[in-house]
Amino acid sequence: MGKALGIVALIFGIIGMIISLVIMVPMWGWGFSALAFFPYFPNIVAIICGSIGIKKDDSPGLAIAGLILGSIGFIIAVMGTFIGLARW
Question: What CA–CA distance (Å, rounded) separates 3 from 43?
Fold first, then answer.
């Protein structure tokens, strides 16, 4: 299948990590808002594509990197949501 899913996972992992750090970390001081659920989507796409890409791609390196970035971004988003809800 090539490297398509690995590339998609890596791109969404990078986007999800950046969005999680840019939106969620400052939000810890602001409290809860509607933007709290926005970082979940690219991170979930990265996790799904990375998981499938590890099994189906020819070289799973990019898929593993995307899966790791998506997982870390998802954890940051969850932490930010709970901290924002606690301060709200």
Answer: 19
pLDDT below 70 — which residues of the chain? Answer: 1, 24-36, 87-88
Residue 13 tokens, joined: 């992992």
Q: Which amino acid is at 59?
A: S
How far does Cα 38 stand from its chain's mean position? 10
Cα–Cα distance for residue pair 58/82, rounded to 1 Å: 38
Question: Whole-model pTM?
Answer: 0.85
CA distances from 65 to 28, 75, 78 (A): 27, 15, 20
Of 61, 69, 64, the closest CA to residue 19 belongs to 69
3-state secondary structure the chain: CCCHHHHHHHHHHHHHHHHHHHHHHHHHHHCCCHHHHCCHHHHHHHHHHHHHHHHHCCCCHHHHHHHHHHHHHHHHHHHHHHHHHHHC
